[in-house]
Amino acid sequence: MITRTLGSSGLEVSAIGLGCMGLSHGYGPAVDHQSGVALIRAAVDRGITFFDTAQVQGPFTNEELVGQAAWTSSAAVASFSRKPLAPARSASYP
């Protein structure tokens, strides 16, 4: 698997990542917990070490799935979770 170094951190992750939004949010019903963990483990088994999650996608559901799958894996896994977006300011919202 080709890897990339993120910024100046020295952290190497797979060039191909897995976006986890569809596991719990956004593309229809959430997958069951076991299926989500199995999918992430299968990705790790294929060399994927970069997982993209966000608090708004659950909240925390995807981070728990990635964490549980990574805990039982011998591979080093990097999960990146974005902060929730702040509400937009408008005339009706101070």
User: In total, how many beta strands?
Assistant: 5
| β-strand amount | 15-25%
Q: Topology as H/E string?
A: EEEHHEHE
Shape type: globular
Helical residue percent? Answer: 25-40%
Number of helices: 3
Structural class: alpha/beta
CA-CA gap between termini: 48 Å
The unreliable regions are 85-94
Sheet having the most strands = 3 strands, parallel
Strand order of the largest sheet: 3-4-5
Mean pLDDT: 77
Cα radius of gyration in angstroms: 15 Å
Helix and strand layout, with pairings?
Layout: E1 3-6, E2 11-14, E3 18-19, H1 21-24, H2 33-45, E4 50-54, H3 61-71, E5 78-82
Parallel strand pairs: 3-4, 4-5
Antiparallel strand pairs: 1-2
Helix pairs in contact: 2-3
Describe this structure in words.
The structure is a single chain. The chain is of the alpha/beta class. The protein has a domain at 29-82. 30% of the residues lie in helices and 21% in strands. Helix 2 (33-45) packs across helix 3 (61-71). The longest helix has 13 residues, at 33-45. It starts with a strand and ends in a 12-residue tail after the last strand.
Features:
disordered C terminus; globular; 94 residues; single chain; three-stranded parallel sheet
Concise overview:
By secondary structure, the chain is an alpha/beta fold. It has helices at 21-24, 33-45, 61-71, and strands spanning 3-6, 11-14, 18-19, 50-54, 78-82.
